[in-house]
């Protein structure tokens, strides 16, 4: 599969597994899973046919590991980033001392004032390293990487979770924990 097709399928999956499953008649379980056969049928019905082999390739090759199959390979879900209500059932985890968030300069004034908020998502996404955060921020322009004092936040009672693909999730980050 060429890179363009892979990106196109990944974006299609993001739209329908994270944000708008109903748009293609898909119903997710409360914890975000979709039946693979139902997903493939829905894609075909809506003019975007995807083969099982293509789906498996996108899940395996996605650089951010955005998607996962269940142990039997019969269900698929997005690992995080939902704007719809799902409970990924991620346990609270002890974060490293520092985590990172990539953004752009235009957002800094609001972030300094309000901290990091989830915006349209259910949690703020944090990266375990500055380079990953830089790549995330670069999607919207010249990146700015913020350092989050995650251990201090956790000690103060802010629960952190980590998704299957290593993205750290927290409800919000108050400005006092940002550098």
Topology:
Layout: H1 3-19, E1 34-35, H2 36-45, H3 52-61, E2 67-69, E3 75-78, E4 92-93, E5 99-104, H4 108-114, E6 124-126, H5 130-138, E7 143-148, H6 150-155, E8 160-162, E9 168-170
Antiparallel strand pairs: 1-3, 2-3, 4-8, 5-7, 6-9, 8-9
What's this entry about, in short?
The chain is of the alpha+beta class and 179 residues long. The chain has helices at 3-19, 36-45, 52-61, 108-114, 130-138, 150-155, and strands at residues 34-35, 67-69, 75-78, 92-93, 99-104, 124-126, 143-148, 160-162, 168-170. It folds into 2 domains: 3-78, RNA 2'-phosphotransferase, Tpt1/KptA family, N-terminal domain (Arc Repressor Mutant, subunit A, Orthogonal Bundle); 92-177, Alpha-Beta Barrel (ADP-ribosylation fold), CATH 3.20.170.30.
Number of separate helices: 6
Kindly give the count of domains.
2
Question: What is the structural class?
Answer: alpha+beta
Mean pLDDT: 94
Overall shape: it is globular
Helix content: 25-40%
The Rg value, from CA coordinates, equals: 17 Å
Order of helices and strands: HEHHEEEEHEHEHEE
Strand order of the largest sheet: 4-8-9-6
How many angstroms does the end-to-end distance come to? 41 Å
Largest sheet: 4 strands, antiparallel
Which fold name corresponds to the CATH topology of the largest domain?
ADP-ribosylation fold
Instruction: Report the sheet-strand fraction.
Output: 15-25%
CATH architecture of the largest domain: Alpha-Beta Barrel
Unreliable parts: none
Which CATH C-level class of the largest domain is it? Answer: Alpha Beta
**Topology, number of strands:** 9
């Amino acid at each position: 599969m060429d890179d363009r097709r892979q990106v196109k399928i990944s974006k299609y999956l993001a739209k329908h597994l994270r944000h708008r499953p109903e748009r293609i008649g898909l119903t997710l379980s409360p914890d975000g899973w979709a039946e693979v056969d139902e997903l493939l049928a829905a894609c075909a019905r809506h003019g975007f046919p995807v083969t099982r082999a293509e789906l498996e390739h996108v899940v395996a090759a996605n650089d951010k590991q955005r998607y996962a199959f269940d142990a039997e390979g019969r269900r698929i879900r997005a690992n995080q980033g939902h704007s719809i209500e799902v409970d990924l059932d991620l346990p609270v985890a002890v974060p490293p001392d520092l985590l990172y968030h990539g953004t752009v300069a235009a957002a800094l004034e609001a972030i300094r004032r309000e901290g990091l908020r989830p915006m349209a998502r259910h949690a703020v996404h944090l990266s375990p390293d500055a380079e990953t955060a830089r790549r995330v921020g670069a999607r919207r322009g010249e990146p700015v990487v913020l350092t989050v004092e995650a251990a201090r936040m956790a000690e103060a009672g802010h629960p952190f979770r980590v998704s299957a693909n290593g993205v750290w999730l927290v409800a919000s980050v108050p400005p006092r924990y940002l550098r």
